[in-house]
């Protein structure tokens, strides 16, 4: 009987942690962007992404989405010094994620979203052209074809940036 138990253990899949959920990250980001002034939505997005990074600590994409959530939360405080502190806390996390996978369109899209929404005085606008070119190429090549709602969101966002 003991032999059958071992055989079943070898054949049956062992439940493990859920894999990193890029589609979930994309959906959460898209929803948070749609209501970025709502403290509950943004803080919920940040909490979800902190949990995601805990589940996938070696995944630069998860860290990038977490950084985007943290940067989005920088727009919540009424105190500009607190907002700047949050911005300065999360910007290096996003940059480190991009450095780990520099040609990843998702990460570059996240950075483009930050760059085009922060005040110019912050000085975080140096990569807009490069990010835009990479994202446009990714759209043409079908990078987001497995996520049609997010692909449409990216396309809409880019069209709003065009003069």
Strand tally, please?
0
Q: How do the SSEs run, as a string of H and E?
A: HHHHHHHH
What proportion of the residues form beta strands (DSSP E)?
under 5%
* Helical amount: 55-70%
- Categorize the overall geometry: globular
Low-confidence sequence ranges: 1-19
> What structural category arises from helix and sheet content?
mainly alpha
Report Rg. 19 Å
How far apart the termini lie comes to 73 Å
Characterize the biggest β-sheet: none
Count of alpha/pi helices: 8
What is the averaged pLDDT score? Answer: 88
How would you explain this protein's 3D organization?
- The chain has 163 residues and is mostly helical.
- It has helices at 2-11, 22-34, 39-55, 60-73, 80-100, 105-115, 128-141, 148-161.
- Helix 5 (80-100) runs antiparallel to helix 6 and helix 6 (105-115) packs across helix 7 (128-141).
- The protein is globular.
- It starts with a helix and ends with a helix.
Summarize the structure.
With 163 residues, the chain is mainly α. It has 8 helices and no strands.
Give the helices and strands, then pairings.
Layout: H1 2-11, H2 22-34, H3 39-55, H4 60-73, H5 80-100, H6 105-115, H7 128-141, H8 148-161
Helix pairs in contact: 2-3, 2-4, 3-4, 4-5, 4-6, 5-6, 6-7, 7-8
Sum up the structure in keywords:
mainly alpha; 163 residues; globular
């Amino acid at each position: 009987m003991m032999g059958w138990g071992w055989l079943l253990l070898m054949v049956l899949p062992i439940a493990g942690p859920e894999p990193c959920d890029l589609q979930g990250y994309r959906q959460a980001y898209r929803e948070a962007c749609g209501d970025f002034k709502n403290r509950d939505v943004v803080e919920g997005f940040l909490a979800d992404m902190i949990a995601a990074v805990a589940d996938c600590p070696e995944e630069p994409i998860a860290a990038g989405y977490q950084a985007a959530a943290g940067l989005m939360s920088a727009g919540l405080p009424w105190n500009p010094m607190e907002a700047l502190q949050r911005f300065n806390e999360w910007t290096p996390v996003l940059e480190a994620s991009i450095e780990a996978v520099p040609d990843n369109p998702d990460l570059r899209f996240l950075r483009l979203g930050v760059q085009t929404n922060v005040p110019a005085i912050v000085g975080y606008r140096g990569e807009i052209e490069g990010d835009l070119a990479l994202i446009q190429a990714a759209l043409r090549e079908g990078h987001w074809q497995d996520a049609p709602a997010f692909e449409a969101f990216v396309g809409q966002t880019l069209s709003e940036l065009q003069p």
